[in-house]
Write a structure and sequence with these properties.
Pathway: Amino-acid biosynthesis; L-leucine biosynthesis; L-leucine from 3-methyl-2-oxobutanoate: step 3/4. The chain is an alpha/beta fold and 357 residues long. 41% of the residues lie in helices and 20% in strands. The chain has helices at residues 16-34, 47-53, 59-67, 90-100, 124-127, 166-181, 197-210, 223-232, 244-258, 296-308, 313-328, 346-356, and strands spanning 4-12, 37-42, 70-75, 105-111, 131-137, 147-152, 155-160, 186-191, 217-222, 239-242, 265-269, 275-279. A 10-stranded mixed beta sheet has the order 2-1-3-12-11-4-5-10-8-9, with helices on both faces. Strand 6 (147-152) and strand 7 (155-160) form a beta hairpin. Helix 1 (16-34) crosses helix 10, helix 6 (166-181) packs across helix 7 (197-210) and helix 8 (223-232) runs parallel beside helix 9 (244-258). The two termini are 21 Å apart. Bound molecules: adenosine-5'-triphosphate and magnesium ion.
Length: 357
């Protein structure tokens, strides 16, 4: 294991800086406990970068990220920049950095911690014990295929091409297997192979790659069936791997099983061990600057970074367990509190996690 890691920290806008501060403090403590130095270097992205650099993604930030072992990102955007033209929108910075870093795999865990079962709108017996991960392909498929609009004999026609290359499918399937191998060793590959040619290639590649992972059980589900199973019996899933559009939809669906946006972390991986880690939620302008944002999604993103980019599995589990213990003890920020009058703030929540750690 390396003893010194460079982490690019991009707090962004809205609640970004507030939640990032707590996440970095947790990371620093992990470093002290493990005898590892995390050199955190801050960069600008999103609205703040538009204001100071005139672009949502300064070249300097891209360089900083590329030189780092991993990137931690807060959130970008806010009403101040909502009317800006496309090239001056905070979200453009986010798309830009994902592209610049070659991120091709999006990883979104949905874990229902028992003490938060009440936060879900689904039945407790359905959601308690849910612990799954959706692995979504990010660079191919229908979102990136050629798009056309033209006039046909019966009015306008629209086309969206869906293309997948074998190598592109293979690398994401391998990410799915690698993650499943570290968990319950059950991988569900989701496609629409009864209808789509790209899905038939997807399934063929999944079958071929499976030979390299005899310890992992591979099964296939059609996307419509998977959508149904996710609400009917989500506990059956360990790791789901799927293409871009299906993953877009299924990862949001899976996220809502847990019912609390302030708890959801995510990773986007490039080749090798490099990755970008961020909470699923946005910049929450409505509560920015109030000190009440839930920092746990960002802290759990730090845990994902430790596991997936830095190979520090035990430290990752320690951070996750610290979060679960704090929740078990009944501490809540406003977004997950049954009784908001008893809710604690961002800094207090961060401190409790560190105390537990
Ligand atoms: P996007 O940035 O994808 O456009 P959005 O603006 O619709 O998303 P968010 O910024 O995630 O959504 O906020 C949605 C709601 O959830 C808001 O009311 C916000 O205050 C709340 N929220 C989001 N993140 C948190 C958090 N970490 N803690 C507390 N509340 C949050
Ligand atoms: Mg938003």
């Amino acid at each position: 294991m390396k003893k010194n890691y460079r982490i690019a920290v991009l707090p962004g806008d809205g609640i970004g800086p507030e939640i990032m501060q707590e996440a970095v403090k947790v990371l620093t403590l992990v470093g002290e406990l493990e005898g590892v130095t995390f050199t955190c270097e801050e960069g600008r992205i999103g609205g703040i970068a538009i204001d100071t650099d005139g672009t949502p993604l300064p070249e300097e930030t891209v360089t900083l990220a590329k030189q780092a072992d991993a990137v931690l990102l807060g959130a970008v955007g806010g009403p101040k920049w909502d009317q800006n033209p496309g090239n001056l929108r905070p979200e453009t910075g986010l798309l830009g950095i994902r592209k610049a870093l070659g991120l091709f795999a999006n990883i979104r865990p949905a874990t229902m911690h028992s003490s938060l079962v009440d936060a879900s709108s689904l039945k407790p017996e359905v959601v308690s014990g849910v612990d799954l991960i959706v692995v979504r392909e990010l660079t191919g498929g229908i979102y990136f295929g050629e798009k056309k609009r033209y006039d046909g004999p019966n009015g306008e026609v629209a086309e969206d091409q869906c293309i997948y290359h074998e190598a592109e499918v293979e690398r994401i399937i391998r990410v799915g297997f690698d993650i499943a191998r570290k968990r319950q060793k059950r991988l569900v590959s989701v496609d629409k192979a009864n209808v789509l040619e790209s899905s038939r290639l997807w399934r063929k590649v999944a079958e071929r790659v499976a030979a390299d992972y005899p310890d992992v059980e591979l099964s296939h589900q059609l996307v419509d069936s998977c959508a149904m199973q996710l609400v009917r019996e989500p506990k059956q899933f360990d790791v789901i791997v799927t293409e871009n559009m299906f993953g877009d939809i299924l990862s949001d669906q899976a996220a809502m099983l847990t019912g609390s946006i302030g708890m959801l972390s995510s990773a986007s991986l490039a080749a090798g061990s490099f990755g970008l880690y961020e909470p699923v939620h946005g910049s929450a302008p409505d509560i920015a600057g109030k000190g009440i944002a839930n920092p746990l999604a960002t802290i759990l993103s730090v845990a994902m970074m430790l596991r997936l980019s830095l190979g520090m599995d035990e430290a990752a589990a320690a951070v996750e367990n610290a979060v679960w213990s704090v929740l078990e003890a009944g501490h809540r920020t406003g977004d997950i509190a049954a009784d908001r009058s008893k809710a604690i703030g961002t800094i207090e929540m961060g401190q409790l996690v560190r105390d537990e750690l």
